[in-house]
Amino acid sequence: MIIDERANGGGQAANYITDVLSRQHLAGWKDRDGLVCNTPAGAVHGPKVMLIDQNAGSGGDFLPYSFRQLGIGKLIGTRTRGGLIGISTNPGLMDGGSTVVPYFRFYDADHRWSVENQGVAPDIEVAQDPIENNRGRDTQLAHAIDEILRQLDDFRDPIPDVAPAYPTELGQ
């Protein structure tokens, strides 16, 4: 899976996205008709990479930060903007406008101020080539595809193809 979060201007979606992408196979179910289902539902197995760039900030900084911290996959592209200070809107102005001010700042699990003014660096640095881009070729995406294909060569699905045979004795 390739997640393209380039130019992500922010928001609060990172926790949900990384929760789904980091789900591991826990168990399976087999019904009386032989249908096999796995849990947790919605898990996405297989290699994952995320495309990042300098136009992603705020929540666009936090999503690749979380992706890396949870070990979901590699980051490919260029360093994110480094604007991870949350904003809050004050009461409206008489003309209908509003002011937006910095309100909260991010710190990491080790209690260090992080990401603000630094951004999130990629694991694989790939600058977008403007000449190729004008020709309709996305060099960052091409690198991401190559990386995913390389990882797929070694990938073994952790989910069994079939359920075990039903027990034939009590206590099994």
TrEMBL record:
Predominant subcellular localization, coarse grouping: cytoplasm
Keyword Hydrolase in annotation: yes
GO molecular-function terms, A-Z: serine-type peptidase activity
Keyword Transcription among UniProt keywords: no
Taxonomy, superkingdom: Bacteria
Any one GO CC term of the record: cytoplasm
InterPro entries membership: ClpP/crotonase-like_dom_sf, Tail-specific_protease, Tricorn_protease
Subcellular location: Cytoplasm
Keywords, alphabetical: Cytoplasm, Hydrolase, Protease, Serine protease
GO biological process: proteolysis
Ranges where the Tail specific protease domain occurs: 2-126
Membership in a protein family: Belongs to the peptidase S41B family.
Name the UniProt record assigns to this protein: Tail specific protease domain-containing protein
Organism, scientific name: Woeseia oceani
Source lineage: Bacteria, Pseudomonadati, Pseudomonadota, Gammaproteobacteria, Woeseiales
